[in-house]
Protein backbone atom coordinates (compact mmCIF):
# COMPACT_ATOMS: atom_id res chain seq x y z
CA UNK A 1 0.00 0.00 0.00
CA UNK A 2 1.26 3.50 -0.84
CA UNK A 3 0.75 6.42 1.56
CA UNK A 4 -2.08 8.59 0.16
CA UNK A 5 -2.45 10.74 3.27
CA UNK A 6 -2.13 14.51 3.07
CA UNK A 7 -2.58 17.73 5.01
CA UNK A 8 -4.83 20.61 3.96
CA UNK A 9 -5.00 24.01 5.67
CA UNK A 10 -2.92 22.53 8.49
CA UNK A 11 -5.23 19.57 9.17
CA UNK A 12 -4.31 15.95 8.49
CA UNK A 13 -6.41 13.81 6.13
CA UNK A 14 -5.85 10.02 6.30
CA UNK A 15 -6.32 10.05 2.54
CA UNK A 16 -6.58 12.86 0.02
CA UNK A 17 -10.13 12.05 -1.21
CA UNK A 18 -13.35 13.70 -0.15
CA UNK A 19 -16.69 14.83 -1.55
CA UNK A 20 -17.17 17.92 -3.69
CA UNK A 21 -19.42 20.31 -1.79
CA UNK A 22 -22.99 19.70 -2.89
CA UNK A 23 -22.81 15.94 -3.27
CA UNK A 24 -23.81 13.61 -0.40
CA UNK A 25 -23.67 16.45 2.12
CA UNK A 26 -26.92 18.42 2.41
CA UNK A 27 -28.48 16.63 5.40
CA UNK A 28 -27.12 14.87 8.50
CA UNK A 29 -28.11 11.57 6.86
CA UNK A 30 -25.98 12.42 3.82
CA UNK A 31 -23.08 13.49 6.05
CA UNK A 32 -23.35 10.25 8.07
CA UNK A 33 -22.76 8.33 4.82
CA UNK A 34 -19.64 10.44 4.26
CA UNK A 35 -18.40 9.83 7.84
CA UNK A 36 -18.92 6.07 7.35
CA UNK A 37 -17.22 6.05 3.92
CA UNK A 38 -13.52 5.61 3.20
CA UNK A 39 -13.15 9.33 2.38
CA UNK A 40 -10.32 11.24 4.04
CA UNK A 41 -12.56 14.20 4.94
CA UNK A 42 -16.03 15.58 4.34
CA UNK A 43 -17.46 18.95 3.35
CA UNK A 44 -21.00 20.25 3.81
CA UNK A 45 -23.34 21.56 1.14
CA UNK A 46 -22.76 25.28 0.46
CA UNK A 47 -24.84 27.11 3.02
CA UNK A 48 -26.79 30.34 2.64
CA UNK A 49 -28.16 32.36 5.56
CA UNK A 50 -31.71 31.07 5.05
CA UNK A 51 -32.81 27.55 4.15
CA UNK A 52 -33.36 27.17 0.38
CA UNK A 53 -35.39 24.67 -1.63
CA UNK A 54 -33.33 25.46 -4.71
CA UNK A 55 -34.40 25.24 -8.32
CA UNK A 56 -37.30 23.13 -9.69
CA UNK A 57 -36.62 19.55 -10.73
CA UNK A 58 -35.44 17.94 -12.93
CA UNK A 59 -32.26 19.81 -11.94
CA UNK A 60 -29.53 17.14 -12.12
CA UNK A 61 -28.84 14.38 -14.60
CA UNK A 62 -25.88 12.26 -15.63
CA UNK A 63 -25.02 12.51 -19.32
CA UNK A 64 -24.85 9.55 -21.71
CA UNK A 65 -21.75 7.32 -22.04
CA UNK A 66 -20.31 8.39 -18.67
CA UNK A 67 -19.04 11.71 -20.02
CA UNK A 68 -20.33 13.65 -17.02
CA UNK A 69 -23.32 15.48 -15.60
CA UNK A 70 -25.29 18.69 -15.73
CA UNK A 71 -26.87 20.37 -12.69
CA UNK A 72 -28.77 23.48 -11.79
CA UNK A 73 -29.53 22.75 -8.14
CA UNK A 74 -29.77 26.42 -7.14
CA UNK A 75 -28.07 26.12 -3.73
CA UNK A 76 -30.68 23.99 -1.95
CA UNK A 77 -29.51 23.77 1.67
CA UNK A 78 -30.74 23.70 5.26
CA UNK A 79 -29.48 27.18 6.12
CA UNK A 80 -26.12 27.89 7.80
CA UNK A 81 -27.33 27.38 11.38
CA UNK A 82 -28.04 23.71 10.57
CA UNK A 83 -24.43 23.20 9.53
CA UNK A 84 -23.18 25.24 12.49
CA UNK A 85 -25.06 22.90 14.83
CA UNK A 86 -23.64 19.91 12.95
CA UNK A 87 -20.13 21.37 13.28
CA UNK A 88 -20.67 21.90 17.03
CA UNK A 89 -21.62 18.22 17.45
CA UNK A 90 -18.95 16.81 15.14
CA UNK A 91 -16.40 14.39 16.63
CA UNK A 92 -13.11 16.19 15.94
CA UNK A 93 -11.22 13.30 17.55
CA UNK A 94 -12.20 11.22 14.53
CA UNK A 95 -9.42 11.01 11.95
CA UNK A 96 -11.67 12.68 9.36
CA UNK A 97 -11.58 16.51 9.32
CA UNK A 98 -14.73 18.52 8.64
CA UNK A 99 -14.90 21.28 6.04
CA UNK A 100 -17.78 23.76 5.85
CA UNK A 101 -18.87 25.36 2.58
CA UNK A 102 -20.45 28.81 2.73
CA UNK A 103 -22.04 30.53 -0.25
CA UNK A 104 -23.56 33.79 0.92
CA UNK A 105 -25.78 35.64 -1.56
CA UNK A 106 -24.06 38.88 -0.48
CA UNK A 107 -20.91 39.96 1.35
CA UNK A 108 -23.05 40.75 4.40
CA UNK A 109 -24.41 37.18 4.33
CA UNK A 110 -20.90 35.75 4.13
CA UNK A 111 -19.79 38.02 7.01
CA UNK A 112 -22.75 36.90 9.13
CA UNK A 113 -22.05 33.21 8.50
CA UNK A 114 -18.27 33.46 8.91
CA UNK A 115 -18.70 35.42 12.16
CA UNK A 116 -20.95 32.68 13.56
CA UNK A 117 -18.38 29.98 12.78
CA UNK A 118 -15.46 32.07 14.10
CA UNK A 119 -17.34 32.85 17.33
CA UNK A 120 -18.06 29.12 17.80
CA UNK A 121 -14.29 28.47 17.85
CA UNK A 122 -14.51 25.10 16.07
CA UNK A 123 -11.73 23.05 14.39
CA UNK A 124 -13.65 22.80 11.08
CA UNK A 125 -12.17 24.56 8.04
CA UNK A 126 -14.16 27.02 5.90
CA UNK A 127 -14.37 26.87 2.10
CA UNK A 128 -16.05 30.00 0.73
CA UNK A 129 -17.90 29.23 -2.50
CA UNK A 130 -17.41 32.00 -5.06
CA UNK A 131 -18.60 29.95 -7.99
CA UNK A 132 -22.16 28.66 -7.93
CA UNK A 133 -23.38 29.17 -11.52
CA UNK A 134 -27.00 28.23 -10.86
CA UNK A 135 -28.72 30.97 -8.84
CA UNK A 136 -30.78 32.90 -11.40
CA UNK A 137 -29.71 36.52 -11.48
CA UNK A 138 -26.55 35.92 -9.38
CA UNK A 139 -23.40 36.19 -11.50
CA UNK A 140 -20.48 34.12 -10.18
CA UNK A 141 -18.28 36.19 -7.85
CA UNK A 142 -15.33 34.13 -9.09
CA UNK A 143 -15.50 35.96 -12.43
CA UNK A 144 -15.43 39.41 -10.78
CA UNK A 145 -11.87 39.95 -9.57
CA UNK A 146 -12.66 43.28 -7.92
CA UNK A 147 -15.63 41.86 -6.01
CA UNK A 148 -13.58 38.82 -4.96
CA UNK A 149 -10.76 41.04 -3.65
CA UNK A 150 -13.25 43.19 -1.72
CA UNK A 151 -14.87 40.06 -0.25
CA UNK A 152 -11.53 38.54 0.75
CA UNK A 153 -10.31 41.80 2.26
CA UNK A 154 -13.26 41.56 4.68
CA UNK A 155 -13.50 37.78 5.20
CA UNK A 156 -9.80 36.82 5.49
CA UNK A 157 -9.13 39.00 8.58
CA UNK A 158 -12.49 37.97 10.04
CA UNK A 159 -11.81 34.24 9.64
CA UNK A 160 -8.21 34.71 10.88
CA UNK A 161 -7.26 31.01 10.62
CA UNK A 162 -6.50 29.11 7.37
CA UNK A 163 -9.47 28.84 4.97
CA UNK A 164 -10.14 28.12 1.29
CA UNK A 165 -12.21 29.34 -1.62
CA UNK A 166 -14.08 27.36 -4.33
CA UNK A 167 -13.37 28.76 -7.77
CA UNK A 168 -15.02 28.54 -11.17
CA UNK A 169 -12.90 27.36 -14.10
CA UNK A 170 -10.88 30.05 -15.87
CA UNK A 171 -10.04 29.74 -19.55
CA UNK A 172 -7.65 32.63 -20.18
CA UNK A 173 -4.05 32.90 -18.95
CA UNK A 174 -4.64 36.58 -18.12
CA UNK A 175 -7.46 35.50 -15.78
CA UNK A 176 -5.19 32.99 -13.99
CA UNK A 177 -2.71 35.86 -13.54
CA UNK A 178 -5.33 38.36 -12.34
CA UNK A 179 -6.97 35.90 -9.93
CA UNK A 180 -3.62 34.76 -8.48
CA UNK A 181 -2.59 38.38 -7.94
CA UNK A 182 -5.68 38.80 -5.75
CA UNK A 183 -5.28 35.53 -3.85
CA UNK A 184 -1.60 36.14 -3.06
CA UNK A 185 -2.61 39.18 -1.00
CA UNK A 186 -4.21 37.02 1.69
CA UNK A 187 -1.82 34.95 3.83
CA UNK A 188 -4.50 32.87 5.57
CA UNK A 189 -6.12 31.99 2.27
CA UNK A 190 -4.55 28.54 2.57
CA UNK A 191 -6.09 26.77 -0.42
CA UNK A 192 -8.11 27.21 -3.56
CA UNK A 193 -10.46 24.48 -4.78
CA UNK A 194 -10.46 24.14 -8.57
CA UNK A 195 -12.89 23.69 -10.28
CA UNK A 196 -16.54 24.20 -9.66
CA UNK A 197 -18.79 23.04 -12.50
CA UNK A 198 -18.27 24.57 -15.94
CA UNK A 199 -21.14 27.03 -15.82
CA UNK A 200 -24.15 27.23 -18.06
CA UNK A 201 -23.79 24.29 -20.36
CA UNK A 202 -26.85 22.98 -22.20
CA UNK A 203 -27.75 19.28 -22.57
CA UNK A 204 -30.44 18.46 -25.15
CA UNK A 205 -32.12 15.11 -25.77
CA UNK A 206 -31.86 14.16 -29.44
CA UNK A 207 -35.12 12.17 -29.56
CA UNK A 208 -37.39 14.48 -27.55
CA UNK A 209 -35.54 17.62 -28.68
CA UNK A 210 -35.91 18.82 -25.07
CA UNK A 211 -33.42 20.26 -22.61
CA UNK A 212 -32.56 17.64 -19.96
CA UNK A 213 -33.04 19.88 -16.92
CA UNK A 214 -35.80 22.37 -16.08
CA UNK A 215 -34.18 25.47 -14.52
CA UNK A 216 -32.88 28.36 -16.62
CA UNK A 217 -34.07 26.94 -20.00
CA UNK A 218 -31.89 23.90 -19.39
CA UNK A 219 -28.65 25.79 -18.67
CA UNK A 220 -26.58 24.22 -15.89
CA UNK A 221 -23.11 23.44 -14.56
CA UNK A 222 -21.16 20.69 -16.31
CA UNK A 223 -19.18 18.16 -14.31
CA UNK A 224 -17.57 14.75 -14.64
CA UNK A 225 -15.03 13.29 -17.06
CA UNK A 226 -15.66 15.90 -19.77
CA UNK A 227 -14.28 18.69 -17.52
CA UNK A 228 -11.12 16.80 -16.46
CA UNK A 229 -8.70 18.65 -18.72
CA UNK A 230 -10.04 22.07 -17.76
CA UNK A 231 -9.81 21.05 -14.10
CA UNK A 232 -6.19 19.88 -14.49
CA UNK A 233 -5.27 23.16 -16.17
CA UNK A 234 -6.81 25.22 -13.37
CA UNK A 235 -5.11 23.09 -10.69
CA UNK A 236 -1.72 23.46 -12.39
CA UNK A 237 -2.14 27.15 -13.25
CA UNK A 238 -2.82 28.04 -9.62
CA UNK A 239 -0.19 25.59 -8.31
CA UNK A 240 2.34 27.52 -10.38
CA UNK A 241 1.03 30.94 -9.34
CA UNK A 242 0.26 30.55 -5.61
CA UNK A 243 3.54 29.79 -3.79
CA UNK A 244 2.87 28.60 -0.25
CA UNK A 245 -0.81 27.88 -0.91
CA UNK A 246 -2.43 24.52 -1.65
CA UNK A 247 -4.78 23.41 -4.39
CA UNK A 248 -7.74 21.08 -3.97
CA UNK A 249 -8.39 19.41 -7.31
CA UNK A 250 -11.92 18.57 -8.41
CA UNK A 251 -13.35 17.76 -11.81
CA UNK A 252 -13.39 14.56 -13.82
CA UNK A 253 -12.14 12.13 -11.17
CA UNK A 254 -13.69 8.81 -12.17
CA UNK A 255 -10.81 6.51 -11.15
CA UNK A 256 -7.41 6.42 -9.49
CA UNK A 257 -5.90 7.59 -12.79
CA UNK A 258 -7.59 11.01 -12.74
CA UNK A 259 -6.83 11.42 -9.02
CA UNK A 260 -3.17 10.70 -9.88
CA UNK A 261 -3.25 13.31 -12.65
CA UNK A 262 -4.73 15.93 -10.30
CA UNK A 263 -1.87 15.38 -7.84
CA UNK A 264 0.67 15.44 -10.68
CA UNK A 265 -0.85 18.81 -11.69
CA UNK A 266 -0.34 20.06 -8.13
CA UNK A 267 -3.35 19.04 -6.02
CA UNK A 268 -2.88 18.44 -2.27
CA UNK A 269 -6.34 16.90 -1.95
CA UNK A 270 -8.95 15.71 -4.44
CA UNK A 271 -12.72 16.10 -4.32
CA UNK A 272 -15.18 13.88 -6.17
CA UNK A 273 -18.61 15.06 -7.35
CA UNK A 274 -20.32 13.38 -10.29
CA UNK A 275 -18.77 9.94 -9.66
CA UNK A 276 -19.83 10.10 -6.01
CA UNK A 277 -23.36 11.06 -7.05
CA UNK A 278 -23.54 8.18 -9.55
CA UNK A 279 -21.63 5.43 -7.70
CA UNK A 280 -22.26 6.32 -4.05
CA UNK A 281 -19.81 6.58 -1.14
CA UNK A 282 -18.13 3.28 -2.08
CA UNK A 283 -16.31 5.35 -4.73
CA UNK A 284 -13.76 6.49 -2.14
CA UNK A 285 -12.51 3.00 -1.27
CA UNK A 286 -12.34 2.11 -4.98
CA UNK A 287 -10.43 5.20 -6.06
CA UNK A 288 -8.12 5.10 -3.02
CA UNK A 289 -7.08 1.55 -3.94
CA UNK A 290 -6.71 2.37 -7.63
CA UNK A 291 -4.50 5.37 -6.79
CA UNK A 292 -2.39 3.33 -4.36
CA UNK A 293 -1.92 0.59 -6.98
CA UNK A 294 -0.83 3.22 -9.55
CA UNK A 295 1.69 4.68 -7.11
CA UNK A 296 3.13 1.24 -6.30
CA UNK A 297 3.40 0.43 -10.02
CA UNK A 298 5.20 3.74 -10.66
CA UNK A 299 7.45 3.44 -7.59
CA UNK A 300 5.98 6.39 -5.65
CA UNK A 301 5.69 6.01 -1.84
CA UNK A 302 3.91 9.25 -0.95
CA UNK A 303 1.97 12.01 -2.76
CA UNK A 304 4.91 14.37 -2.26
CA UNK A 305 6.99 12.10 -4.50
CA UNK A 306 5.07 13.38 -7.55
CA UNK A 307 2.85 16.32 -6.51
CA UNK A 308 3.11 19.14 -9.05
CA UNK A 309 5.80 17.28 -11.03
CA UNK A 310 3.97 17.21 -14.34
CA UNK A 311 6.64 17.35 -17.03
CA UNK A 312 6.55 19.81 -19.92
CA UNK A 313 8.08 19.21 -23.33
O1 LIG B 1 -21.52 25.80 -6.47
C1 LIG B 1 -22.35 25.06 -7.02
N1 LIG B 1 -22.01 24.40 -8.12
C2 LIG B 1 -22.86 23.63 -8.81
O2 LIG B 1 -22.50 23.08 -9.86
N2 LIG B 1 -24.14 23.46 -8.34
C3 LIG B 1 -24.47 23.89 -7.05
C4 LIG B 1 -25.90 24.37 -6.96
O3 LIG B 1 -26.50 24.65 -7.99
O4 LIG B 1 -26.37 24.47 -5.82
N3 LIG B 1 -23.59 24.89 -6.52
Describe the structure.
Keywords: Cytoplasm, Flavoprotein, FMN, Oxidoreductase, Pyrimidine biosynthesis. GO terms for molecular function: dihydroorotate dehydrogenase (fumarate) activity. This is Dihydroorotate dehydrogenase (fumarate). Its EC number is 1.3.98.1. With 313 residues, this protein is of the alpha/beta class. The protein has one domain: Aldolase class I (TIM Barrel, Alpha-Beta Barrel). Helices cover 33% and strands 19% of the residues. The chain is built from nine helices and 14 strands. The protein has helices at residues 28-36, 80-89, 107-119, 145-159, 173-183, 228-241, 256-265, 274-279, 283-298, and strands spanning 6-8, 11-13, 17-19, 42-43, 60-63, 68-71, 98-102, 125-129, 163-167, 189-194, 198-202, 219-223, 246-250, 267-272. The strands form three sheets. It has an eight-stranded parallel beta sheet with strand order 3-14-13-10-9-8-7-4. Strands 5-6-12-11 form a four-stranded antiparallel beta sheet. Helix 4 links the parallel strand 8 (125-129) and strand 9. The longest helix is centred in the last third of the chain and has 16 residues, at 283-298. The model has no long low-confidence stretch (mean pLDDT 98). The site of oxonic acid has 14 residues, from loops.
Amino acid sequence: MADISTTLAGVKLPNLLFNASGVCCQTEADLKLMVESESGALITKSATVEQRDGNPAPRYTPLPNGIGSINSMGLPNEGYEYYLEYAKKYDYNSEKPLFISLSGLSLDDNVKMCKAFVDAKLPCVLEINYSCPNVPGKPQMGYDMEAMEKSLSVLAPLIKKPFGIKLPPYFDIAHFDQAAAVFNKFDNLAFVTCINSVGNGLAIDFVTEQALIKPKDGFGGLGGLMVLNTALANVNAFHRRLPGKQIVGVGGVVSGKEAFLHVLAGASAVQIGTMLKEEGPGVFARIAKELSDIMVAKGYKTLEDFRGKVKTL
